[in-house]
Amino acid sequence: MTKVLYHNDVQEEVLQSKKIAVIGYGSQGHAHALNLKESGFDVVVGLRPGKSWDKAVEDGVQVVSVADATAQADVVMVLLPDELQPKVYEESIKPNLQPGNALAFAHGFNIHFNQIVPPDNVDVFLVAPKGPGHLVRRTFEEGAGVPALYGIYQDCSGEAKQLALAYAKGVGAGRAGILETSFQEETETDLFGEQAVLCGGLTSLVKAGFETLTEAGYQPEVAYFECLHELKLIVDLMYEGGLEGMRYSISDTAQWGDFVSGPRVVNEETKARMKEVLTDIQTGVFAKGWILENQANRPQFNAVNQKESTHPIEKVGRELRELMPFVKKQVNSKKEVVSNASN
Ligand SMILES: NC(=O)C1=CN([C@@H]2O[C@H](COP(=O)(O)OP(=O)(O)OC[C@H]3O[C@@H](n4cnc5c(N)ncnc54)[C@H](OP(=O)(O)O)[C@@H]3O)[C@@H](O)[C@H]2O)C=CC1
Ligand SMILES: CC[C@](O)(C(C)=O)C(=O)O
Ligand SMILES: [Mg+2]
Ligand SMILES: [Mg+2]
């Protein structure tokens, strides 16, 4: 089994004498900055004036421009949206990096696909939490953590690995597990996971189930509870006990249906499509498409995002969640702003 490191396996002294600039204060940025600060590290946040800047100030974090944060820091963690990183890197980070600094990422996209080419005289490492930033923060506050991968692209100082491990421990990953990877493995598996399973696969499965039931004449509220709301409860059981743990709690009737009907829905054909998705990631076809979509100001992204927000499952879901005060909206996402504006 791959060696998984935990809190007590990691020495953090190497990072204690250093200043960390967290560039960006969004989903990952706020979690890294606050968790590292509460773990005792010296953190400055780099931003432009705006919503995130105001939030960071409100949270009591020191905030300066991206250029100033980079100039002050020894370790610069880039937590801007992937598509914006190359421009901000060229304009504000690269000119302020000092030889011997470390440049860090939470996803390998820009290094792996050569959108950012760092100088030879800095360390380059990756600490990629395997979970959404808001949960990296929430679990940390609860005394738990989200696992993370670490990887080294360039080890100029000879201490890049120790820095990456200390950083991963600082964000709380040592409580859940820290695993070694490469930039290539992290980039390709992360893109595959979010496209085929966690985000793309799941939203398509949920919508297809909801549409099948409502098109057959069943009530949208029943279809919503069945195909979306209950999903969290089922996934919580998988998180705690794997597939077996979930199957322990469901009825034998459900388990038999799982065995005979699951493979009718997700089958060899689905797996063949998954392999196509993986090939597009590995060959750079997906990355090229995403870069071009951004260069064209996201025509397809915006159109699909708008259409998705008007799907009947979203309408009925908003109404039902209003009636469940215990389902608190703890994350104000960009997508909610878009969908609320369209209502
Ligand atoms: N979201 C997640 O949970 C995960 C993300 N990652 C990776 O983490 C990185 C960050 O992603 P994510 O946290 O989702 O990003 P978000 O979109 O949530 O946050 C981006 C942050 O960057 C700031 N920003 C945007 N443009 C600029 C600019 N020109 N100058 C200064 N600041 C700017 C935004 O501030 P403003 O308010 O001013 O716009 C915001 O604080 C990516 O590499 C992503 O792949 C990895 C694992 C999981
Ligand atoms: C699953 C999506 C993710 O990879 C993540 C939260 O880990 C992302 O890029 O946001
Ligand atoms: Mg991910
Ligand atoms: Mg990702």
Automatic annotation (TrEMBL):
<keyword id="KW-0460">Magnesium</keyword>
<dbReference type="InterPro" id="IPR014359">
    <property type="entry name" value="KARI_prok"/>
</dbReference>
<dbReference type="InterPro" id="IPR013116">
    <property type="entry name" value="KARI_N"/>
</dbReference>
<comment type="function">
    <text>Involved in the biosynthesis of branched-chain amino acids (BCAA). Catalyzes an alkyl-migration followed by a ketol-acid reduction of (S)-2-acetolactate (S2AL) to yield (R)-2,3-dihydroxy-isovalerate. In the isomerase reaction, S2AL is rearranged via a Mg-dependent methyl migration to produce 3-hydroxy-3-methyl-2-ketobutyrate (HMKB). In the reductase reaction, this 2-ketoacid undergoes a metal-dependent reduction by NADPH to yield (R)-2,3-dihydroxy-isovalerate.</text>
</comment>
<protein>
    <recommendedName>
        <fullName>Ketol-acid reductoisomerase (NADP(+))</fullName>
        <ecNumber>1.1.1.86</ecNumber>
    </recommendedName>
</protein>
<feature type="binding site">
    <location>
        <position position="251"/>
    </location>
    <ligand>
        <name>substrate</name>
    </ligand>
</feature>
<feature type="binding site">
    <location>
        <position position="190"/>
    </location>
    <ligand>
        <name>Mg(2+) 2</name>
    </ligand>
</feature>
<feature type="binding site">
    <location>
        <position position="230"/>
    </location>
    <ligand>
        <name>Mg(2+) 2</name>
    </ligand>
</feature>
<feature type="domain" description="KARI C-terminal knotted">
    <location>
        <begin position="182"/>
        <end position="327"/>
    </location>
</feature>
<feature type="binding site">
    <location>
        <position position="52"/>
    </location>
    <ligand>
        <name>NADP(+)</name>
    </ligand>
</feature>
<keyword id="KW-0479">Metal-binding</keyword>
<comment type="similarity">
    <text>Belongs to the ketol-acid reductoisomerase family.</text>
</comment>
<keyword id="KW-0521">NADP</keyword>
<feature type="binding site">
    <location>
        <position position="48"/>
    </location>
    <ligand>
        <name>NADP(+)</name>
    </ligand>
</feature>
<feature type="binding site">
    <location>
        <position position="226"/>
    </location>
    <ligand>
        <name>Mg(2+) 2</name>
    </ligand>
</feature>
<dbReference type="Pfam" id="PF01450">
    <property type="entry name" value="KARI_C"/>
</dbReference>
<dbReference type="Pfam" id="PF07991">
    <property type="entry name" value="KARI_N"/>
</dbReference>
<keyword id="KW-0100">Branched-chain amino acid biosynthesis</keyword>
<feature type="binding site">
    <location>
        <position position="133"/>
    </location>
    <ligand>
        <name>NADP(+)</name>
    </ligand>
</feature>
<dbReference type="InterPro" id="IPR000506">
    <property type="entry name" value="KARI_C"/>
</dbReference>
<feature type="active site">
    <location>
        <position position="107"/>
    </location>
</feature>
<feature type="binding site">
    <location>
        <begin position="25"/>
        <end position="28"/>
    </location>
    <ligand>
        <name>NADP(+)</name>
    </ligand>
</feature>
<dbReference type="GO" id="GO:0004455">
    <property type="term" value="F:ketol-acid reductoisomerase activity"/>
</dbReference>
<feature type="binding site">
    <location>
        <position position="194"/>
    </location>
    <ligand>
        <name>Mg(2+) 1</name>
    </ligand>
</feature>
<keyword id="KW-0028">Amino-acid biosynthesis</keyword>
<feature type="domain" description="KARI N-terminal Rossmann">
    <location>
        <begin position="2"/>
        <end position="181"/>
    </location>
</feature>
<keyword id="KW-0560">Oxidoreductase</keyword>
<comment type="pathway">
    <text>Amino-acid biosynthesis; L-isoleucine biosynthesis; L-isoleucine from 2-oxobutanoate: step 2/4.</text>
</comment>
<comment type="pathway">
    <text>Amino-acid biosynthesis; L-valine biosynthesis; L-valine from pyruvate: step 2/4.</text>
</comment>
<feature type="binding site">
    <location>
        <position position="190"/>
    </location>
    <ligand>
        <name>Mg(2+) 1</name>
    </ligand>
</feature>
<dbReference type="InterPro" id="IPR013023">
    <property type="entry name" value="KARI"/>
</dbReference>
